[in-house]
């Protein structure tokens, strides 16, 4: 394993993410960046994360399977993110992985340092779906970032669409009714769990982002879960009465229409009577 | 966005293709040598375990009983959710109030605890929430939660708003100091639709 990582050091995987400004209803002034350390190695491979040449205070010597529980809220602009082995003297050495990204206000990305299907380290930026979630629903996002063949996600033992035939490094998301789910990952077409089953609360209004990380060959596959909360939309309304027993200020609908008809009828009668009166006077 | 990712992926492939056969190693992009120690990056995150079994699960404590002594309201509160049409579900029993379980609860550190009840029913008559319209600013409301803790609130606003204009995102909010939002119906009655035109909304700040 360690050899693979050292090999990776020389290569320094490079990915550039070009991001167009999204048409976001709310206009936040920053972009959210979440981080997953999904590269296994000796001593759980501690790494230091640098942004634009400076160490990110909270992301030093973080180990395999560590995630950000609160995102980096970054001002919009271009970013160079370097990941150095934690063992290196700070400010020296060559990054294991490098990512160049331009972030716009309102963006939400998860940067995952992980293994390719063949076991080489790489880094991938996934755009998070932070759109409003219908009231009572929860969003599940699953990303394959492990050294393993294509997988299916099993919920309570059965394949869960659309998370089938998921290949490294891709993912999918779906909105489902809120409520705990027992989730596992199995090689596509099989039901033998490679990771899990794990209980995921899937609370309403949250996006639970599950990353499959590690290596099948090295027997260290794992889930790395990040939850984004408070995405739930409001109910459409509150219908709280059905009898009209405490109505105020008049009526409408059938009742109102009925009264209007009645008044119209009275008026019509009145007109007829008046005409008759007129004709009698003649 | 997917186009951007596809472009990025294509970019990576191109890089790989270009650098593979003849390109000298010197052409390979590498980070400039880092100078002496630098100031830590100003923005920071919080980190934790990715293993779901090791993560804290945010549990919302349900309200169990609501009292507003000045209005003579004493009602049990049951968890409610969403009707298939997207409206908040409310207990059929007019003497039971419903708590929107997908929002905050009385023990939450932020956001609104929304409790609603039917104002009336053709068979059951008029419910206790009909008295919400008489609530006075400053009146006390208490909620006993499912854990037995009592939470005290003070009414800050009593509003009657046409249903189409009700600021639902303000009522159902995860933000702001913890507060109570009590809702029922009122206004004119549309007999055709068997519904009232307005909502009564009582907002109360948490004081203890």
Number of E-state strands of chain B: 11
Arrangement of strands in the largest sheet of chain A:
1-8-7-3-4
Report on the biggest sheet of chain A. 5 strands, mixed
How many structurally independent domains of chain A?
2
Mean pLDDT metric of chain A: 83
Return the CATH class of the domain at 63-206 in chain B: Mainly Beta
Structural class of chain A: mainly beta
The number of helices of chain B is 2
State the CATH class of the largest domain in chain A. Answer: Mainly Beta
Report the portion of residues of chain B in β strands.
35-45%
Tell me the name of the CATH homologous superfamily of the domain at 63-206 in chain B. Answer: Sortase
Overview of the molecule:
The complex is a heterodimer of chains A (282) and B (208). Chain A is mainly β and 282 residues long. Chain A has two domains: 1-128, Immunoglobulin-like (Sandwich), CATH 2.60.40; 132-232. In chain A, 14% of the residues lie in helices and 39% in strands. The longest helix of chain A has 29 residues, at 253-281. Chain A is flat. Chain B has a domain at 63-206: Sortase (Sortase, Chain: A). Chain B contains two helices and eleven strands. Chain B has helices at residues 2-19, 168-171; strands at 46-49, 63-68, 73-80, 97-100, 112-116, 120-121, 125-126, 140-145, 150-162, 179-190, 195-206. In chain B, strand 2 and strand 3 form a beta hairpin. The longest helix of chain B has 18 residues, at 2-19. Residues 1-29 of chain B have low confidence and may be disordered. Strand 5 (66-70) of chain A pairs antiparallel with strand 1 of chain B.
